[in-house]
Design goal:
The structure is a homodimer. Chain A is mostly helical. Chain A has six helices and two strands. Chain A has a domain of 62 residues: Multidrug-efflux Transporter Regulator, Chain: A, Domain 2. Chain A has a two-stranded antiparallel ribbon with strand order 1-2. In chain A, strand 1 and strand 2 form a beta hairpin. The first copy, chain A, binds a DNA duplex through helix 2.
DNA sequence: TATTGACCTTCCCACCATGGCAAGGTTTAG
DNA sequence: CTAAACCTTGCCATGGTGGGAAGGTCAATA
């Protein structure tokens, strides 16, 4: 027997917000769900699994378009794991690039902050450096 | 004698886009510039310095509202460097948090990708893991 | 049974920082 | 004089998420 959940319960079960579940449907990431006579969305356990899949992929930072691709691969028994791994590696490259960018900011800004006394006087190397031409 | 630049030249001189300079004016980050009779914006060297300041702060990842505060501190001779340093340190904390988040994703996803053969077969641990309840 | 509170629906708006395009005016070089 | 390269404003889009309004539905309780 299939347990059907309304969107609020599906949200609780998946860790997504009801708002986002509607949005994912709207944007084509999810197929339209069944509805009650009154128009309430209903989700079966397979769909709850899909929602959880989406949440976990979001937690890993995948974009919705990546997730779209991942969902299709997941549901395709003919998939080649090569394709999945490639998506993961592309995403890992983006993550690494972002980390590098942030670490660069961190390094520069830490040095600047270290050279700013942070007291009651107006002199501050952070401002001086920002004002300087490169 | 003051050299006045039109927005395109100001963009080149500062490293910002003309689009963004207009946007910064619109959003109140910059005071309205002078205009020619024809309505073209004109920027003097002090304003060019301000634009550079903004670009460098953006490069360090400061938000526009942080930059707003930084600009005011910069222009206020009564400032206390404490205030500047505090902004910098808050931002450093955000940077560190983002780096930590990304590194966590990196770690989890690297492990998953390593356990996916990436060949022609459908089996893939990445998908299995995403599908699993936490 | 009538009401109340907790759901649900759709629709629109906001964030942040940036880019693109369109329709029109201006300036400059050939 | 014309053409190219500027400039102007205004609107739309991105991505992922949240907020709120106005209205319908359902279940429990008084």
């Amino acid at each position: 027997m299939a347990t059907l959940l309304t969107i609020g319960d599906a949200a609780k079960a998946s860790g997504l917000s009801a708002k986002m579940i509607r949005h994912y449907e709207q944007s084509g990431l999810l197929r339209k769900s069944a509805r009650t006579d009154a128009g309430y969305r209903l989700y079966n356990s397979e769909q709850i699994n899909q929602l959880r899949f989406i949440r976990q992929a979001r937690n890993l930072g995948f974009s919705l378009s990546d997730i779209h691709a991942l969902l299709e691969l997941w549901q395709n028994p003919e998939r080649e794991s090569r394709a999945v791994k490639q998506l993961a590696q592309q995403h890992l490259a983006e993550i690494a690039a972002k980390i590098a960018e942030l670490q660069h900011m961190q390094q520069v800004l830490t040095a600047l902050a270290d050279s700013c006394k942070g007291d009651g006087s107006p002199h501050c190397n952070i401002l001086n450096q920002l004002a300087k031409p490169d």
